[in-house]
Amino acid sequence: MSEKKKTRAPSVKKKTGKKRVTLKKTTSADATPPKGEGDLLHMLLDTIPDAIYFKDLKSRFVRVSRGWMKKSGIKKETTILGKTDFDIFTLEHARQAFKDEQEIIRTGKPIVGIEEKETWPNRPDTWVSTTKMPLKDRSGKTIGTFGISRDITEVKKYRDALQKAKDDLEERVRERTAQLSEAKYRLEQHVEQLKFLNTTAFELAPIVHIEEMFGAVGSAFLARFPFAQMSICQKVKNGFSCVHATGVLDMPEARSLSEKALASFTQTETARLQVVEQWPRNDRLKLPWPKALKEFPCWIAIPLQADNAVLAVIQIFAPSQGVTVFKQEQTLLSTLAAHAATRLSNALHYQYLEVKARLEGELEAARNIQRSLMPRETPSIPRLSLAGEYLPAYEVSGDYLDYFQCGDGGWVAIIADVCGKGVPAALLMSVLRSIARFEARFHYTARSLLCAINDSIYLNINERSFITALCLVIDAEGTSMTYARAGHPKLLRMEKEGERISVIESKGPALGILQNIASFDDQLEEVTIPLAGGETYLAYTDGLTEATGEKKNAYGLARLTNVMRDLKHEPVQRMVARIIADAREFTHNKPLNDDLTMLALKVAE
Asked: What is the per-residue pLDDT for 343?
């Protein structure tokens, strides 16, 4: 955009014969309205707010308007006559204005309605809309230039601000579009994985025969490694037995080698995921495998664990890209393995069910299976007595109650509530149980265990579901415990003699509610609790405090704590039973609206 400047119209004098007549200026005080052209010109130059200027052939000012003088700060018109833009503006504007005016003089072509930036020596820059024309005498000869400039600085500012806002908006739109594109890609991956897991869950759910289960589990894993060879070896008393194989591994000699390969690893090693990128270079795997397996140098071992025991190990021989696939889908494979192990455990359980139990239908079987997943024996923990109970609202429950010994000799006590009821919630509960028992082999504090569980469980949960959980990890001597909760009702502590019942605070979001695993880890808090003699601790699901009476009122925390005080000298088993009885009395033995689960600990005095 070229940069121009404003001037004031020159004092024009008309020639008539030998006389020179100067046009008389008019003022508002004149009694007679102006009639001559000179009077009209003077009135225009004196009253119009725009800058008008006349210049000679050398671009020197010969007349300017009052508007031009006001803008340029010139007090008297005589001080500017004979000067040029170089005396008023900086070189940046003066050079361009001079160049434009000389071009008009040379070509006779005007410049109409252009935007110019005026640069002043000691003032901020201004913007004007300018029109410049050739100045001609009566004979048509060009004798200079004249122009009019209207200040558009504020308009330019608003327009620039609007353009900047538009550019900023477009940039934000581009950034947001990129973010949405990335989010869409991640969501599509997440949806695809969830769809796969859900499909697999429904495919495995009705299978009760162990041989059919191994085939279905093998098909599920081959769906993620369609280019691989696979064998499944079931854990038996003295080692492993190959119960399913595909491709070149589905031969007696190859099946035997699959069993022998696992036998060379320790029990601890077979209980964790293993990846060997080049199995021919691994001494333990240097066996007389079929020659075709040399095209599948990547060896992956995926254990199927339930109840802290390895039920089977899946061996996958894959091309080199198998390592990349494994890294991309490690979480999905871990979740799939946990679910497959649960279903395998259930299938093994079905082997011991009598014909009558199977004929009663899947629902009754599911209830029996879920009951078998609940802890059957009270652990012997030094200084502590423990009791737990759960009451499903329907045939199966979405509540989870468990206590077991973890990998460092300590004890885990965990209570959880899956969002929803019935079979879908029970399925998620069974997956949660397998993951919790598996992760407890490697995580020995309440916070680290819940974080590990969340890492594996969130793939199984859609955006409308979540799991609340409360976890206690008691040290091997029973002197202290770590406590963390993921969106679950808070732990209650009753001091000795029932003098005080307090709520122990610990912040944390529900499992599976945050897709960003790091955000969950950052928000989850842990509290270390010294276990003093005579104290009683109580954890429960909201099915207890939200149980409704005849007046649609809730059982509530206040009633619960009053019952606890009344039972302060009772053993925890009796305390749990009496609280449940009181809840039944409160609801007049009506069917529960929600699953009800409790866990109580009492420290010996």
From this structure: 82
Residues 6+ apart with CB under 8 A from 110: 104, 131, 132, 133, 134
Alpha carbons within 13 A on the beta-carbon side of 363: 3
pLDDT score at 351:
63
Express as a percent the part of the chain with pLDDT over 70. Answer: 90
User: How many other β-carbons are positioned within 10 Å of the β-carbon of residue 335?
Assistant: 24
CA 603 to chain centre: 42
Name which of 32, 4, 10 is nearest 23 in CA terms. Answer: 10
- 527-530 and 536-540 beta bridge pairing: unpaired
Q: Which CATH class is domain 13-151?
A: alpha beta
Q: Are the C-beta atoms of 416 and 399 separated by less than 8 Å?
A: yes
- In this structure, how many other beta carbons lie within 10 angstroms of the beta carbon of residue 133? 15
Strand order in the sheet with 480-486: 399-405, 411-418, 467-474, 480-486, 527-530
- How confident is the model at residue 362, as a pLDDT? 59
Q: What is the pLDDT of residue 1?
A: 42
- Classify 201 as helix, strand or coil: helix
210-350 and 375-603 agree in CATH topology: no
362, 365, 366, 369: CA torsion to nearest 10: -160
**Nearest 5°: CA angle at 33, between 30 and 39?**
85
What one-letter code names the amino acid at 539? Answer: A
pLDDT of residue 352: 53
Predicted local confidence at residue 355, as pLDDT: 35
- Token pair listed for 480: 């202290």
- CATH fourth-level superfamily of 210-350: GAF domain (3.30.450.40)
Handedness of CA 487, 535, 389, 475 (dihedral sign): positive
CA 28 vs. chain centroid, Å, equals: 73
CB of 287 within 8 A of CB of 327? no
> Residue 476: what pLDDT?
92
- Widest pairwise Cα distance in the chain: 136
Cβ neighbors of 301 (< 8 A, separation 6 or more) are 262, 265, 270, 273, 274, 313, 314, 315, 316
Rounded mean pLDDT of the chain? 84
CA dist 275 and 94 (Å) reads 76
- Domain residue ranges of the chain, discontinuous segments joined by +: 13-151, 210-350, 375-603
Q: Which is nearest to 58 in space by CA: 97, 9, 2, 15?
A: 97
Q: CA geometry: angle at 18 spanning 15 and 22, to 5°? A: 40
Q: Which residue type occupies 8?
A: R
Strand-pairing partners, residue 19, are 16
The CA radius of gyration of the chain, in Å to the nearest whole number, is: 44
Question: pLDDT below 50 — which residues of the chain?
Answer: 1-33, 354-357, 359
Which of 229, 243, 214 has the alpha carbon at shortest distance from 298? Answer: 229
pLDDT at 12: 42
* Token output for 87: 């005396």
| pLDDT tens string 279-328 | 988 888 989 999 999 899 999 999 998 888 898 999 999 988 888 888 88
Superfamily of domain 375-603 in the CATH hierarchy: PPM-type phosphatase domain (3.60.40.10)
* Partners of 580 in beta bridges: none
How far apart (Å, rounded) are the C-alpha atoms in residues 499 and 568? 9
